[in-house]
């Protein structure tokens, strides 16, 4: 009977393609904005992702998310180091500074100041130069996207030449020399990221009473992270988070205080509705068109259970194909754009499941309507001309 | 196993026995009394024709005999089974095993080839597809379709060829009762006669019976008996087509 079901489905080429297109659109329109949303949200905590070494992030208790920097006193580093269960702790500067371009324009940059002694918190991958080169005077490391894009040198004819080793930058009226190009996870604001040492960063940053943005720390082997965090909260009165908790804090801040989830949810809902409207209705119409033949099969001895299986198989077949094509199209398009633009595209396995569930709901709904119609069909209809 | 009979030879065993069968569609003032107490007996080995004007209840009666429509009253035994005592699924399975259908509009599935259409009853009964296609090809050969036609979709076949496919489909699983809501009037005289000869030759045997609904006088000669219907009842059963000609 599966053979008959599939031949009935594939034989009606126009409707079959219509259903597939509808489900492909639904799958694509559910997956694409979700993947963009996922990419954008993962960029909100990209700094934590890239600083992979520490177990703990220690910040001011009022900090709500990673960009919400409330500077600490430099002496807090020593207090964290003195907390039971902490192996080591170093300070980290993170601030927004303006870079003056060779044509006189300005570009905002994120400047990260690393512990002078250890350089902990540096970029995850160096493309040119070495991290240790930061120990040279006035040295900085620039992220590749910034070096190729917003920080690239502009020629009078409009062309841009990417920053390379040895080039100079002017950061807040301070001359800096590029000693490295690195690759990092793109930031939410999508602006260049410049790494330097903590002492250099605090020299070029506008002077404030306190400049320490974060303390990153490593727990001793076998130490309970929750307990160490609790000790820091109690003894030093600072907040301490594991990287996962800090990411979560940032994620929820953006989810709660920006309109992004609603915007993306609206697009996803529209995609789902398009899927229901096109594929659901076309599948239902396909069943209505074939009602006489389902009646014929029933008259000739096909039980309701077999008819149910036939319709379910038809729905599953178009669902699987539409889902696959939709996901494939979203992945391919995301891959193409990610290679050429700064688009935030991330397709984790959870999204594949969400998209599958959306397509499944459309198929089950359409199949349920169709099955109901066929089950209620009186086989005597076959004798009517 | 169906044993062929000599022309006109009919057994005394009943294939169908109906007493006072009634059927009403709708209720109240809009009710239509399609059958008002039909009595009918069809014997094994018999080709029984049901004739009558449009709206006389012929299609309703064969729908009840085929088990695709429930009767409202009366008794009806088909191949010694009473549908009213069977569950829906049992009735469906009974139809699949014992009844062959030739529908008024053929009802061939348009996306299946002729041979696949004929194989459908066997596939429903669980015959593997390859074997079912083999048996279907064999019977299509008997009704005169060549290999090319067998692989054609119904829409690519003429009306007469489609009818042959429908007949082959009704016979392929060797049913004991064949109900045929005929449309030979849609065919030219020569083709109509050929189709009836074919039905007579292939479908009638000791262990099976054929009921044909028609109002095409050109094919009355093929009947063993003719039941005349009017206004929901069988007004008369003629024992030979000659009686019919005498009547008219």
Which features characterize this protein?
heterodimer, A: 385 residues, alpha+beta, 6-stranded mixed β-barrel, two-stranded antiparallel sheet, 18% strand, elongated, B: 248 residues, alpha/beta, Rossmann fold, 6-stranded mixed sheet, 3-stranded antiparallel sheet, 9 strands, 33% helix, 25% strand, globular, disordered N terminus
Task: Describe this structure in a few short sentences.
With 385 residues, chain A is an alpha+beta fold. Chain A has twelve helices and twelve strands.
CATH topology term of the domain at 14-79 and 176-247 in chain B: Rossmann fold
Helix tally of chain B equals 8
User: What portion of residues of chain B is helical?
Assistant: 25-40%
In spatial order, strands of the major sheet of chain B run 5-6-7-3-8-9
Instruction: List the quaternary state of the chains.
Output: heterodimer
Characterize the overall form of chain A.
elongated
- Going by CATH, the architecture of the domain at 14-79 and 176-247 in chain B would be 3-Layer(aba) Sandwich
Fraction of residues in helix of chain A: 40-55%
Look at the structure and give the CATH class of the domain at 14-79 and 176-247 in chain B.
Alpha Beta
Q: Tell me the structural class of chain A.
A: alpha+beta
- Whole-number radius of gyration of chain A? 29 Å
Distance between the termini of chain B: 39 Å
Rg of chain B, Å, rounded: 18 Å
């Amino acid at each position: 009977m599966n053979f008959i079901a599939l031949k009935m489905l594939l034989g009606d080429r126009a409707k079959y393609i219509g259903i597939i297109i509808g489900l492909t659109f639904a799958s694509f329109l559910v997956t694409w904005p979700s993947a963009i949303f996922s990419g954008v949200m993962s960029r909100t905590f990209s700094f934590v992702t890239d600083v992979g070494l520490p177990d703990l992030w220690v910040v001011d208790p009022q900090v709500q998310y990673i960009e919400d920097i409330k500077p600490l006193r430099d002496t807090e580093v020593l207090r964290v180091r003195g907390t039971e269960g902490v192996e080591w702790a170093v300070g980290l500067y993170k601030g927004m500074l303006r870079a003056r371009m060779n044509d006189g324009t300005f570009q905002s940059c994120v400047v990260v100041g690393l512990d002078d002694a250890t350089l902990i918190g540096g970029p995850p991958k160096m493309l040119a130069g070495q991290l240790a080169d930061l120990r040279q005077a006035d040295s900085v490391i620039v992220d590749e996207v910034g070096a190729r894009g917003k920080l690239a040198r502009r020629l009078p004819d409009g062309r841009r030449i990417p920053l390379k080793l040895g080039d100079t930058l002017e950061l807040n009226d301070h001359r800096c020399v590029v000693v490295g190009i690195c690759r990092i996870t793109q930031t939410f604001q999508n602006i260049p990221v410049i790494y330097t040492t903590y002492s250099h960063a605090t020299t070029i940053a506008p002077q404030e009473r306190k400049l320490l943005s974060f303390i990153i720390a490593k727990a001793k082997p076998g130490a309970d992270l929750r307990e160490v965090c609790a000790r820091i909260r109690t003894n030093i009165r600072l907040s301490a988070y594991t990287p996962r908790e800090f990411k979560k804090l940032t994620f929820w801040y953006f989810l709660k205080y920006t309109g992004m989830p609603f915007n993306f949810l609206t697009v996803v809902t529209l995609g789902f509705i398009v899927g229901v409207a096109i594929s659901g209705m076309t599948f239902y119409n396909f069943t209505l068109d074939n009602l006489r033949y389902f009646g014929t099969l029933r008259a000739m001895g096909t039980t309701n259970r077999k008819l149910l299986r036939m319709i379910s198989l038809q729905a599953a077949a178009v669902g699987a194909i539409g889902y696959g094509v939709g996901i494939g199209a979203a992945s391919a398009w995301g891959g193409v754009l990610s290679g050429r633009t700064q688009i935030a595209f991330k397709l984790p396995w959870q999204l594949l499941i969400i998209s599958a569930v959306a397509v499944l709901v459309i198929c089950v709904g359409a199949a349920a309507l169709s099955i109901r119609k066929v089950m209620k069909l009186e086989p005597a209809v076959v004798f009517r001309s | 196993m169906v044993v062929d009979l000599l022309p006109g030879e009919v057994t005394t065993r009943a294939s169908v026995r109906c007493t006072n069968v009634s059927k009403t569609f709708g209720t109240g003032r809009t009710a239509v009394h399609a059958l008002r107490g039909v009595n009918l007996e069809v014997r094994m080995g018999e080709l029984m024709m049901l004739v009558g004007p449009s709206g006389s209840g012929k299609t309703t009666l064969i729908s009840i005999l085929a088990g695709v429509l429930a009767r409202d009253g009366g008794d009806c035994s088909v191949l010694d089974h009473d549908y009213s005592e069977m569950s829906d699924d049992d009735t469906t399975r009974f139809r699949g095993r014992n009844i062959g259908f030739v529908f008024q509009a053929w009802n061939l599935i348009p996306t299946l080839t002729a041979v696949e259409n004929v194989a459908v009853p066997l596939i429903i009964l669980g015959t593997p597809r390859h074997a079912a296609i083999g048996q279907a090809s064999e019977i299509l050969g008997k009704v005169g379709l060549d290999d090319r036609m067998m692989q054609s979709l119904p829409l690519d076949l003429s009306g007469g060829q489609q009818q042959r496919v429908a007949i082959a489909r009704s016979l392929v699983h060797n049913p004991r009762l064949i109900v045929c809501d005929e449309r030979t009037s849609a065919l030219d005289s020569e083709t109509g006669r050929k189709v009836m000869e074919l039905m007579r030759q292939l479908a009638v045997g000791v262990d099976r019976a054929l009921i044909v609904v028609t109002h095409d006088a050109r094919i009355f000669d093929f009947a063993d008996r003719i039941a005349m219907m009017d206004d929901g009842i069988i007004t008369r059963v003629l024992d030979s087509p000659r009686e019919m000609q005498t009547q008219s």
